[in-house]
Design brief:
Length: 69
């Protein structure tokens, strides 16, 4: 299909830019948002099914992690 192999390079993280505050924990805070319900929740459900032993029903939220530091 492609003339050359597709290669993904994995490099060590050198910088990190946190998302704006209103994006933190967005899916948890707005589960009925059309974008979340149509695009994200089906992916989360699939991950939960495929990786049931690793899936957390109650994730560690960014806001909670920030308070514990």
């Amino acid at each position: 299909m492609f003339k050359s192999p597709i290669v993904t390079q994995i490099n060590q993280l050198t910088e990190f830019y946190p998302a704006e505050v209103y994006h933190q924990d967005y899916a948890t805070l707005h589960p009925s948002s059309p974008y979340i319900s149509f695009y994200d929740l089906p992916k989360v459900d699939n991950l939960a099914a495929c990786f049931a032993d690793l899936y957390r029903a109650n994730p560690i939220l960014v806001s909670a992690a920030a308070q514990s530091n």
